[in-house]
Design a protein that fits this description.
Quinone Oxidoreductase, Chain A, domain 1, Rossmann fold, seven-stranded mixed β-sheet, six-stranded parallel β-sheet, 10 helices
């Protein structure tokens, strides 16, 4: 089969690799769509690639040859021995699996499982997701356990966004946001935009999104944001105070800019919630401000905990993710797809192997 293999900084090879062989308990799936995630972009453009022989890592994964792709949907083409409930032609996405036996599962925290996750997790608690088993390829092999079927009413394009919509839902659900609460989303990449859709489905009002790039701000308004604020034009703090009177009930961080940590504590109201999604770089913080405002700071679960809810929202047309997709390209154009995202020409690109 063909696969897009990362070989260096912003470098890919379309390579012939062995098609995975079905084993008992597994499904062989033909990849229909695979979205390019922000973490994929940062892995491929990491400066550590310029340090050959080093042990540079990104999000727990060593910078080494990899087949990326974790936002995907596939069609079942072969079924392993012992698998029940699946048929050839069914479509599937990942659901968070659990082993039921590790430290976390024994305490009922199945979403933190060290043994049954879709992405690899080691005993030290770190995660590594860049491997040779990603979905930027023609086929993937996955355990049948931990997959969910895609309803007929959900398109391939939508289904491939189940995982990132799940990420947006985690920020909203775990913040305790209620209908009518104001939400400020810092960052308008595709995670920020899907968080916007999650907030809208949950009844947030108003929804405010901030970014530097005009196309992202325009897209946010198209998707239902009440306000899209350019952080390079005017004082965002004053604008959000004018809109909300006291600060946002919930602030969601969807960017890696270190300064945004301090900004979030300024933008949230007293006794409000700051929800962290964006893996920001280390930064100076002012915990006195947290204490004075009685801010609740949460790290939202980036696992696949809410994939089922994401799928239902798309199935029953409470969320329309298709408007977010700006381009679909063949696997052979993977380099072009990444370059278009680096250049800001696209917000979200899907590959169609």
């Amino acid at each position: 089969m063909k696969a897009a293999v990362v070989t260096g900084r912003r470098q890919f090879e379309i390579r012939e690799v062995p098609t995975p062989e079905v084993r008992p308990g597994t499904l062989l799936l033909k990849v229909k769509r695979c979205s390019i995630c922000g973490t994929d972009l940062e892995f491929v453009d990491h400066p550590g690639w310029d340090k050959p022989g080093g042990e540079e890592r990104f999000l727990g994964s060593k910078l080494d040859e990899a087949i990326l792709g974790h936002e995907w949907v596939g069609e079942v083409v072969e079924i392993g021995e012992g698998v029940e409930g699946w048929s050839i032609g069914d479509r599937a996405v990942d659901l968070k699996g659990s082993c039921g036996q590790c430290y976390w599962c024994r305490r009922g925290l199945h979403h933190l499982c060290m043994g049954g996750g879709v992405r690899m997790t080691d005993r030290r608690g770190g995660t590594g997701w860049a491997s040779m088993y990603g979905a930027m390829a023609e086929y993937v092999l996955r355990p049948a356990q931990g997959r969910i079927k895609v309803p007929d009413s959900v398109s391939d394009e939508e289904a491939a966004l189940t995982e990132p919509l799940n990420v947006g839902l985690s920020a909203i659900y775990e913040s305790g946001m209620k209908a009518g609460d104001s939400v400020a989303i810092l960052g308008g990449g595709h995670i920020g935009q899907l968080t916007l859709l999650a907030a809208k489905a949950a009844g947030a009002a108003p929804i405010i999104l901030t970014d530097l790039i005009k196309s992202r701000l325009d897209k946010a308004l198209e998707l239902g944001a009440n306000f899209a604020l350019n952080v390079s034009e005017g004082n965002v703090y004053e604008q959000i105070m004018d809109i909300t009177e006291a600060g946002a009930d919930v602030v969601v961080i969807c960017v890696r800019d270190a300064d945004v940590l301090l900004q979030s504590t300024m933008l949230v109201r007293r006794e409000g919630v700051v929800s962290l999604l964006g893996f920001p770089e280390p930064a100076e913080i002012n915990p006195i401000l947290w204490l004075a405002k009685r801010i609740r700071f949460i790290c939202s679960d980036p696992s696949l905990r809410y994939n089922m809810q994401a799928m239902k929202l798309m199935q029953y047309k409470q969320v329309d993710c298709k408007k977010l997709i700006s381009a679909t390209m063949p696997l052979a154009d993977v380099g072009k797809a990444f370059d278009s995202l680096y250049a800001g020409e696209n917000i979200l690109v899907q590959l169609a192997p």
